[in-house]
Amino acid sequence: MAQKKKKNDPNNRVVAENRKARHNYEIGEVIEAGLQLTGTEVKSLRVGHANIAESYASEDNGEIVLINSNIPEYDQANRFNHEPRRARKLLLHKREIAKLLQAVQREGMTIVPLKLYFNDKGRAKLAITVGRGKKDYDKRQDSKKRDWQRDKARLMREKG
Questions:
Q1: Strand partners, 64
Q2: What is the residue extent of each domain of the chain?
Q3: Does residue 91 register a pLDDT over 90?
Q4: Is the dihedral of CA 23, 25, 28, 30 positive or negative?
Q5: Which CATH number applies to 14-133: 1.20.1560.10, 3.30.465.10, 3.40.50.720, 2.40.280.10?
Q6: Which segments carry the region annotation Disordered (predicted)?
Q7: Calpha distance 6→3 (Å, rounded)
Q8: In this predicted model, what pLDDT tens digit does every residue of 42-83 receive, in sequence order?
């Protein structure tokens, strides 16, 4: 029998979300990656402090590294605190790393983080995807399409 997720489960919640990513990039397949974190970074995430809005991932010596993500210092840790904007290694399988690097090198795409969350086991995970940057006219077209869908739904509701 499958267990249902609890609504207020502290182990299963979104800490940070990159809402601009879906606006600025064409999103591909989403991959779940682990993060190599220190103890104070995990405590800061559990409090709910993080920002991945302007971050991206790139290759460093055959590994994927998250760059420019901000996890602020944990208040109760004094001298053992972490650097807020350090590069954090992403934990992925070799096959996944090869697939991501191939897309970045051949097709000119970017590895974009979508959300940072805790999974069912209480581990910090990062949902990443390979995205191609949208042009301004693509963004306008998506906006028009979204507005039309909203208007169409409103008309259908009114007609009954």
A1: 59
A2: 14-133
A3: yes
A4: negative
A5: 2.40.280.10
A6: 134-160
A7: 9
A8: 888 888 888 888 888 888 888 999 999 888 888 787 777 888
Q: What is the pTM of this model?
A: 0.76
Q: What is the largest CA-CA distance in the chain?
A: 65
DSSP code per residue over 121-157: TS-EEEEEEEEEEPPHHHHHHHHHHHHHHHHHHHHHH
* 1 pLDDT above the threshold of 50: no
Residue 16, helix vs strand vs coil? strand
Sign of the Cα pseudo-torsion (60, 63, 64, 65, in order): negative
Q: Per-residue pLDDT tens for 101-121?
A: 888 888 878 889 999 999 888
Whose CA is closest to 71, among 106, 101, 107, 46? Answer: 46
Token pair, residue 140, equals 């306008």
Pick from 26, 83, 84: nearest CA to 52: 84
